Amino acid sequence: MLTSILQTIKKFIPKPLFDALAPSYHYSLAFFGALIYRFPSKHLTVIAVTGTKGKSSTVEMLNAIFEAAGKKTAMLGTIRFKIGEHSRPNTFKMTVPGRFFIQKFLRQAVNAHCDVAILELSSEAAKQFRHKFVYLDALVFTNLSPEHIESHGSFEKYREAKLALTETLKKNFKKRSVIVANIDDKESKAFLNSGAREQFPFSIKDAGLYDIKPDGISFTFRNTRITSPLRGMFNIYNCLGAATCAEAFGISVTDIKTGLENLSIIKGRVEFVKLGQDFDVVVDYAHTSGSLTELYKTFDKQKKICVLGNTGGGRDKWKRPEMARVADTFCDEIILTNEDPYDENPSGILEDMLPGFKLHAPTIIMDRREAIGEALKRAKTGDAVLITGKGTDPFIMIAHNKKIRWSDYDVAKEELEKILK
Q1: What is the DSSP letter of 41?
Q2: Distance of alpha carbon 347 from alpha carbon 329, whole angstroms
Q3: Residues 247, 202: contact at Cβ < 8 Å?
């Protein structure tokens, strides 16, 4: 209700005036949210994860590790919200729904006597000051590549928004002030030098002799071999980030191993749909050229039938042909389909992708269910059907801020059941 009122008011305010007032408006909401809920982040350990890729997976890994160590956890991220034993899907189509929401969540975590709250924080959240008055003990930086450029104005401003998340680490609000950063990423130096009192870099070199196999990954951490059913090089990085952070907070390598090895699935992240078929069906959130590349490389030994689209609403139009180029390079068959058009013409979004195709002529099927069904019909023994762009997103967003309830996983399962029958 409040959102609708604010959207209506926004229509009548000249954009230059709105842009000038927005920072004060967002800051005020953040302050009053923290005030009403009595600054809850002061009363428990708060660990945040940021970056372009791997945030949700790293949050889930940290949660699994701390639980293995006997800690009571709270978790807020793109996939779900969790306090203790109670978990529910995030159906808001945003990582951090709002300033009041995050403060209320943290207060509930305190009231539930949680030991640690693990938060996924995005650049959009920072841009709108949703992170203000959330006092961090630690921040994990995964990586940084171009995304949300049109929203932020430039890659530099996007990076600044991410770096803004480090501000509480240098103001000594908490006993700990920890930055954990992937030093294989060229932007890590800025995060390590952001003012945190304790720096914990990690690198693929920390994984020792790692293995990436069709049925999972294995690597060495502090002379201990860890095996996980999760897939891909990117998940070795995510595991290393989570393990390095957990170790900084006194979690033993034994508990790190137990937590990571017990985490067999992350919803919407290389999530397999298995009904006994002789080919792979995978749902993944990959929505950038980099994340698509990493996903496709993970299935490099298989014929890949790829279903993808792009988001509308003016969001990063530049990446449409880039993602198409990645699909053109790695996929054997390509089906373009509707994703989240918002107020844009869905067909126009796919037309923006077409210049990226040089090797393949993609099939265009606007109906997403029909597109998924067609991909499954084409699959033969040993193939991989890769359905990307939405992951656990619960809606397809269409014009006039309307939405259609959706689940790539459920639709893929339903269409697969039809074929197997």
Answers
A1: G
A2: 22
A3: no
Average pLDDT, the chain: 93
Whose tokens are 């090089």? That residue is 233
**CA 119, CA 97: separation in Å to the nearest integer?**
12
Q: How far apart are CA 1 and CA 254, in angstroms?
A: 48
Vertex 269: Cα angle to 264 and 273 (nearest 5): 75
- What whole-number distance in Å separates Cα of residue 227 and Cα of residue 51? 24
End-to-end CA distance of the chain: 45
Which pair of structure tokens corresponds to residue 179?
């930055």
Which of 164, 172, 234 lies closest to 204, judged by CA?
234
d(CA 80, CA 75): 8
Q: Cα–chain-centroid distance for residue 317?
A: 20
Maximum separation of any 2 CA atoms in the chain, in Å: 62
Helix (H, G, I), strand (E, B) or coil at 237: helix
Reduced to 3 states, what is the DSSP secondary structure of residue 328?
helix
CA distance 407 to 395: 7
Residues of the chain with pLDDT under 70: 1-12, 15-22, 146-153
Length of the chain: 421
3-state helix vs strand vs coil in the chain, percent to 5: 45, 20, 35
CA 151 to chain centre: 17
Structural Rg of the chain based on CA atoms? 21
Residue type, 121: L
Neighbour tally for 229: CB within 10 Å:
14
Which domains can be identified in the chain, with CATH numbers? Answer: 20-262 (3.40.1190.10), 271-420 (3.90.190.20)
pTM, two decimal places: 0.93
The Cα 58–Cα 55 span in angstroms is 5
Place of tokens 């979004």: 349
For residue 291, give Cα distances in angstroms to 39, 52, 164, 270.
36, 9, 24, 11
Q: pLDDT for 28-75, tens place per residue?
A: 888 899 999 999 999 999 999 999 999 999 999 999 999 999 999 999
For the segment 354-379, what is each residue's pLDDT rounded down to a tens digit?
999 999 999 999 999 999 999 999 99
